């Protein structure tokens, strides 16, 4: 029983990590309708950036989070303008190749610059365990990531629903041809949305840096899980991404213990394929998005 | 000429590492021969990938599933049973085909990024399973390819293992040539035309009788088998296989990349793409050593982004047409000027009498949620007859056509068609209807824009023949009938509305149908074109094809039809000969409103 509770706590916190990584991906897909295969590599760049700021400038990763998110916002907007915008009307496979190319270049660029060594941010506080009412023991860093992911999702949902810009973004998502007739600059919305999505990755990187080391292929390690989460929750649904992340976190934690540690990914990839086949719109997605 | 040039190029590609480099630089030739083996292997895989990713347009990023299957089949049969890799390769290819079919069943219904993601997921699952079942696969520790087993030396041609590196070049080159040859054969066969058709417009492809799932499955299987053969060889060449290298996502991405850089869907593109980027990356790795770790990936990624942004059709797709324009002297065609009137009816051609029923729809109902688009419609088409279908906009005429050609399944009721031998069948898919002799056109024209007019018509002709030569002959004959002979080589996207409508009819006629469904082929035409279209339909009728035509041009409907059915709000409100229909109050009301009906009465 104790083990089960501990596993559930671990799974939920892991779900928080996945959610943090997935919300940017699902936002970009939902609005811009581009699947960003370079998403994981952005996370990798963020982890390296946090590591450099921590080791060279002595900046606390949590302090670095907001500035990093802002920098990533502009990087994302820039990438959208320079590379995605010209391809907005191209075949989907061309868009896939473009983001795959960016991802490949970033991962290998990191390999050249930093070699394959693991670079960890030294923050013992985050790795220390804290006791949750005597039922489970979890690391503080994980707890922080969990709450940040909920706060970030809540903030994004509020932004999309309560602000003028947020409404414009949703209008573009619903009909990219009617939105310009309402006076919305669609291309600007795409750049902003892409920026926000990447900004989320910057935030995620800083919060996760004390927990996960940076290495060149760390992106693909996370991004496949993020795709599973996003498809499960419904491409484009922020709430869906959080719930999908919690499900996948729990599946990973429980399957790792009760089935076999090296088959836990098989379990959630099986869920992923099942969802794609049976209900491609995901649990919370809008039908037709697929 | 082009074939000779291609064969010459291939011979040079082989001679370079095999004779030329050893002659110039005997010391360094090992390095170069390794690079060329790598080039040949990747070119072969890119060619194989292109059959699925290029011709069929299914962007798989899990192609190393089959590469790994081939590698493991060769190594495991060698290790556990002492079987030679040539046999292992064949077993691997067979397993790869089976796995491809298994994967294709759920994946092929997904589109674009979702198909790519699902292939990645399958690749990950298979890699993880290969790591998990270490008793068979050796797990992450991998399997060495044994050179000695006891006292037996497993070396030489039988074992695909050599001390002399040139022999590897021969096999690698052979694999590339095989993949290229298969790719060429596919592209120039009926299957290749069908694949391109499905990729461009699945609906129009299904209308000419293509079993869309079937041809995609075939492409998947062919591609998997070829990739598996390459995997068997490459595993032995590398002397060692493990799940990370055999079921590698980065390798799967690279293979797709090379094909795209060279030109997606072209026969030689994948080879050009591989030739362009692999030498740069491999040579840099050789010269710079460990300092260049990651350099090849960086180069691949940057070249890919550059190609995608500047020439999305790839090297061959972009430079080829430029060369043709520059040196081939193909002038732009003024398509409007080249359309001729349809060929006149041959003298003495008599109209056959209207005969027995050929197609019957009984009590057709189609509901979309709460909306009843077709409500209890029954119609009969007799042999040799022209049946006109009229009704106001939104009356449900096109829905009726979709029911009559298998594009929509009816909610209740059924459609049956009498075959040439007199038997009645009730098909339930577009290709089923096509096989029963029913051809259709689309109200919104659906030409395969990337293909020439000739190739568009050939797609219809392939319904009756497997031979490309025969299909070409039929296409030319049909083009003469509809008056498109002067435009046979023009790209379909350059046609005017009138031309595109004729192409639509020509493609359907090339199927040699017994029933032709025409959906507003005269809409948007000028009066002269309408007159020609009427003549054309009369000729088609006189040649023994029965026609159902949806039409808004009243004069033409009245002149052509033997029998007219009127549809309004999904119901059949009147039917009869044209003269009666013109005076029917219900029809006048449906078209012009109640007051006019009273006025007419």
Describe this protein's structure.
Chain A: This is Branched-chain amino acid ABC transporter permease. Chain A: Pfam families: BPD_transp_2 (PF02653). Chain A: Keywords: Amino-acid transport, Cell membrane, Membrane, Transmembrane, Transmembrane helix, Transport. Chain A: Its main location: membrane. Chain A: It is found in: Cell membrane. Chain A has 290 residues and is an all-alpha fold. Chain A is built from 11 helices and 2 strands; from the N terminus they run αααααββαααααα. In chain A, strands 1-2 form a two-stranded antiparallel sheet. In chain A, strand 1 and strand 2 form a beta hairpin. In chain A, helix 1 runs antiparallel to helix 8 and helix 10 packs across helix 11. The longest helix of chain A has 31 residues. The radius of gyration of chain A is 19 Å and the shape is globular. The termini of chain A are far apart. By secondary structure, chain B is an alpha/beta fold. Chain B folds into 2 domains: 245 residues, no CATH class; 184 residues, 3-Layer(aba) Sandwich (Rossmann fold), CATH 3.40.50.300. Chain B has a 6-stranded mixed β-sheet, sandwiched between helices. Chain B has a 4-stranded antiparallel β-sheet with strand order 6-5-8-9, covered by helices on one side. In chain B, strands 1-4 form a two-stranded antiparallel ribbon. The longest helix of chain B is centred in the N-terminal third of the chain and has 27 residues. The radius of gyration of chain B is 29 Å and the shape is elongated. Chain B starts with a helix and ends with a helix. The mean pLDDT of chain B is 85. Classes of the chains: A mainly alpha (290), B alpha/beta (601). At the A-B interface, helix 4, helix 9 and helix 11 of A face helix 5, helix 12 and helix 14 of B.
């Amino acid at each position: 029983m104790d083990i089960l509770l501990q596993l559930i706590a671990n799974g939920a916190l892991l779900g928080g990590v996945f959610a943090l990584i997935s919300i940017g991906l699902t936002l970009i897909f939902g609005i811009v309708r581009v699947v960003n295969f370079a998403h994981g590599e952005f996370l990798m760049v963020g982890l390296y950036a946090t590591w450099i700021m921590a080791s060279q400038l002595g900046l606390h990763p949590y302090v670095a989070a907001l500035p990093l998110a802002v920098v990533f916002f502009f990087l994302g907007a820039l990438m959208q303008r320079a590379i995605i915008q010209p391809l907005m009307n191209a075949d989907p496979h061309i868009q896939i190749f473009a983001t795959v190319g960016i991802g490949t270049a970033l991962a290998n660029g990191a390999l050249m610059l930093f070699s394959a060594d693991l670079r960890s941010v030294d923050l013992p506080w985050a790795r220390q365990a804290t006791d949750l009412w005597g039922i489970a023991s979890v690391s503080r860093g994980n707890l922080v990531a969990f709450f940040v992911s909920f706060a970030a999702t809540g903030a994004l949902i509020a932004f999309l629903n309560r602000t003028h810009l947020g409404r414009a973004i949703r209008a573009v998502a619903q009909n990219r041809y009617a939105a310009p007739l309402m006076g919305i600059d669609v291309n600007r919305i795409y750049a902003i949305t892409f920026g926000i999505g990447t900004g989320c990755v910057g935030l995620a990187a800083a919060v996760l840096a004390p927990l996960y080391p940076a290495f060149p292929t760390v992106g693909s390690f996370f991004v496949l899980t993020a795709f599973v989460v996003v498809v499960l929750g419904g491409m484009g649904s922020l709430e869906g991404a959080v719930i999908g992340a919690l499900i996948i976190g729990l599946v990973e934690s429980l399957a790792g213990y009760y089935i076999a540690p090296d088959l836990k990914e098989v379990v959630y990839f099986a869920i992923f394929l099942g969802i794609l086949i049976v209900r491609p719109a995901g649990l919370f997605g809008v039908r037709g998005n697929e | 000429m082009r074939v000779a040039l291609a064969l010459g190029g291939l011979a040079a590609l082989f001679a370079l590492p095999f004779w030329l480099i050893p002659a110039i630089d005997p010391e360094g030739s090992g390095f170069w021969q390794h690079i060329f083996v790598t080039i040949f292997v990747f070119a072969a895989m890119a060619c194989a990938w292109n059959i699925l990713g290029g011709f069929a347009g299914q962007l798989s990023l899990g192609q190393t599933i089959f590469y790994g299957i081939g590698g493991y089949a060769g190594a495991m049969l060698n290790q556990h049973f002492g079987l030679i890799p040539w046999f292992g390769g064949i077993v691997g290819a067979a397993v790869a085909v089976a796995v491809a079919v298994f994967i294709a069943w759920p994946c092929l219904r997904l589109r674009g990024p979702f198909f790519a993601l699902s292939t990645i997921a399958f690749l990950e699952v298979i890699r993880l399973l290969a790591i998990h079942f270490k008793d068979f696969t050796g797990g992450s520790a991998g399997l060495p390819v044994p050179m000695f087993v006891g006292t037996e030396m497993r070396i030489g041609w039988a074992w695909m293992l050599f001390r002399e590196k040139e022999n590897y070049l021969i096999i690698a080159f052979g694999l590339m040539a095989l993949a290229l040859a298969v790719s060429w054969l596919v592209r120039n066969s009926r299957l290749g035309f069908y694949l391109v058709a499905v990729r461009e417009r699945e609906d129009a492809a299904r209308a000419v009788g293509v079993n869309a799932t079937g041809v995609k499955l075939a492409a998947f299987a062919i591609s998997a088998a070829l990739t598996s053969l390459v995997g068997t060889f490459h595993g032995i060449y590398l002397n060692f296989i493990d799940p990370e290298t055999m079921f590698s996502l980065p390798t799967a991405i690279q293979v797709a990349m090379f094909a795209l850089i060279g030109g997606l869907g072209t026969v030689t593109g994948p080879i050009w793409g591989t030739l362009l980027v692999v030498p740069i990356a491999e040579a840099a790795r050789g010269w710079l050593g460990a300092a260049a770790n990651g350099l090849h990936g960086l180069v691949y990624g940057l070249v890919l982004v550059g190609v995608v942004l500047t020439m999305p059709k790839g090297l061959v797709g972009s430079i080829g047409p430029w060369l043709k324009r520059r040196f081939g002297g193909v002038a732009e065609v003024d398509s409007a000027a080249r359309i001729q009137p349809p060929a006149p009816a041959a003298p003495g051609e008599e109209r056959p009498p209207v005969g027995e029923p050929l197609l019957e729809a009984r009590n057709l109902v189609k509901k979309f949620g709460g909306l009843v688009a077709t409500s209890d419609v029954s119609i009969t088409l007799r042999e040799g007859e022209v049946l006109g279908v009229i009704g106001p906009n939104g009356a449900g005429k096109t829905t009726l056509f979709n029911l009559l050609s298998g594009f929509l399944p009816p909610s209740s009721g059924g459609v049956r068609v009498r075959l040439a031998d007199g038997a009645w069948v009730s098909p339930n898919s577009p290709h089923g209807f096509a096989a029963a002799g029913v051809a259709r056109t689309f109200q919104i024209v659906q030409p395969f824009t990337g293909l020439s007019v000739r190739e568009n018509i050939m797609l219809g002709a392939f319904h009756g023949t497997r031979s490309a030569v025969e299909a070409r002959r039929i296409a030319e004959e049909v083009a003469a009938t509809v008056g498109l002979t002067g435009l046979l080589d023009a790209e379909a996207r350059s046609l005017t509305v009138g031309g595109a409508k004729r192409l639509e009819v020509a493609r359907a006629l090339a199927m040699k149908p017994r029933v032709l469904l025409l959906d507003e082929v005269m809409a948007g035409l000028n009066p002269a074109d309408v007159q020609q279209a009427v003549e054309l339909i009369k000729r088609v009728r006189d040649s023994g094809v029965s026609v159902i035509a949806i039409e808004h041009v009243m004069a033409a409907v009245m002149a052509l039809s033997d029998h007219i059915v009127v549809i309004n709000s999904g119901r059949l409100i009147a039917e009869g000969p044209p003269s009666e229909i013109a005076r029917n109050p219900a029809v006048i009301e449906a078209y012009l409103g109640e007051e006019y009906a009273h006025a007419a009465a």
